[in-house]
Every structure is written in structure tokens, then in C-alpha cells.
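Hi V.,

You were right to ask for the full record rather than a summary. Here it is.
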Amino acid sequence: MLGKLPVDDHRELFRTRLADLLNPQHELALLATAIDWSYFENEFKGLYSDKPSRPSMPIRLIVGVLMLKYLYNLGDEKIPFAWESNPYFQYFGGAE
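Predicted structure:
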């Protein structure tokens, strides 16, 4: 089953979006907007089953984390800690 990032264009009064807190000129923010994420979704969606199964992670998240891993030379054991502590990593991976 293909995982999707939630699309919510409604703003809430007391809930701030991650993009509103970050510097839009940061290298990862610029790169996140420059990448055509739909290309990756179209390329990889054939690898997912349409049958009911365990929910998958969104393709943007998977591709984004792999890119960050290689861009910043992080190992498998360090990427979760870097992801948790860096909001630019989260934004790059599609977090709202």
C-alpha cells in the first residue's frame, strides 16, 4: 500500500506550519522546493502493492532521508538523531 504525505492546505489559528518557522533561503529549503518530488513518486509507485497491507512510508520521506544521508555523510545509526534535531531535515523530507 502506497504511503502518502497528508495534504492539508487549511491553516489553523494556533498551529504554525514548519515552513513558516524556517529560513526560506536555507540550502535545504531551496533544494526541497527545486526537486520534482512527483518524479520519484511516479518512478517508485510501481513497487508498491494495491492490496491491503501494512502502511508504507511516503516516498518523499524515503528519498529525502536517503539524500540527506549521503549529502551530510551520516550513517544509518545517526540519521534518526539528525532528523529529530534538525527542522530543515524534517522540512526536506516533507514534514509539515
